[in-house]
From TrEMBL, chain A:
Signal peptide: none annotated. It is found in: Endoplasmic reticulum membrane. This is ER membrane protein complex subunit 6. It comes from the Eukaryota. The chain crosses the membrane at residues 29-46, 53-72, 99-122. The keyword Glycoprotein does not apply. The lineage of its organism: Eukaryota, Fungi, Dikarya, Ascomycota, Pezizomycotina. It comes from Triangularia verruculosa. It is a multi-pass membrane protein. One of its GO terms (biological process) is protein folding in endoplasmic reticulum.
UniProtKB/TrEMBL annotation, chain B:
The lineage of its organism: Eukaryota, Fungi, Dikarya, Ascomycota, Pezizomycotina. This is ER membrane protein complex subunit 3. Belongs to the EMC3 family. GO terms for biological process: protein folding in endoplasmic reticulum. GO terms for cellular component: EMC complex.
Amino acid sequence: MPSQQELDLQISPLVQESLAHNSRTLHNLQSLTASLFGISAGILGLESYSGFLFYLVFSLLTTALFYLLRIAPTALSSPASPTSKAGVLGRYFRSPLDFWTAGVTNGLAGFILTWTLFYGLVRA
Amino acid sequence: MAQVPVQTIHRDPQLFYWILFPITIVMILTGILRHYATVLMSSAPKPLDLRSTREQRSLLHGISLRSNFHALSRRSFHTRRDVVITAYESGAYLKDPDRKGQPPANPMTDPSSMDGMMGMMKNQMAMIIPNTLIMSWINAFFSGYVIMKLPFPLTIKFKSMLQAGVGTKDMDPRWMSSISWYFLCMFGLQSVFNFLLGNDNAASQMAQQMGQMGPQAPQMFGPGVDPNKQFLAEAENLAVIEHHSVLDGVEQRLLEGIRI
């Protein structure tokens, strides 16, 4: 007999293309905002830890806003089926951990680039 | 211990206009050029003849039967499986059944497989040539300048990498030369390309290299793959499936779902 998890997936299947599209949309948003955060951190003249902390806080804030504005409303209007255990995030993204942490690593390179550029231009 | 005084270096502001901006603009423009070169050079896949199309489609048929068997009823699944396995084992779908059991043709001599290799070669060249050109351009014109200060401290190990061509021993490793700005651009411009060219662009070589590092999916219909062996393996995969349907026990689930 198939395992319970396998059966769940077969009863309510997830389309891989849509999952990939969702995470690509999120990735786009995060890499764009990371560059903007880099610009603001450079203009503010943040250095070392405070700059990285700034990035961490704001990228998590972006993800949280994305969750609140885009995911939570659809979840409220159509509650999850009683059999699925993955929760709301599991319907749109691969895993909750992936959703919350991928943004920080996605945009880091872009953040450092624009941070360095604007720090150099403003403070020099 | 006394506080180490912060090093300040007075630089000509012209450095920004004549080094920093040219490198950045050239990096962005090469990325865009690389993207469009890849788009232009990618050749459309050649239409296959009838028999090889049949070979590939029938193998895909077996694979989708294996992955979606739960949507079929037991009887329907067994009928399909019997048909497919018999055909696979007799080699009815093979492109040329006479060559069954012989080793596959050498991919170097097969003209149809040369196309794929040429495509790969072109992509490799499109990555390597601009990189070497820009590297040597920066080395020739801009080596030895200190242009910027990183906003975060680094250990002394980075000094040789960031300050290549700058022969000052006591300088803080935070000061970076033009070649390190090039590296920073190479890593960080992906988001700019995402913004400019859309998501599935070919502009950044970093993303492509990452893709090559990762585990590659086994080639399905590439050169040098024996289709007969693929058919036999797929027949074996189908034979071991223990059938169950999504509709098994659906009444129970329905009754559980109804709340009064």
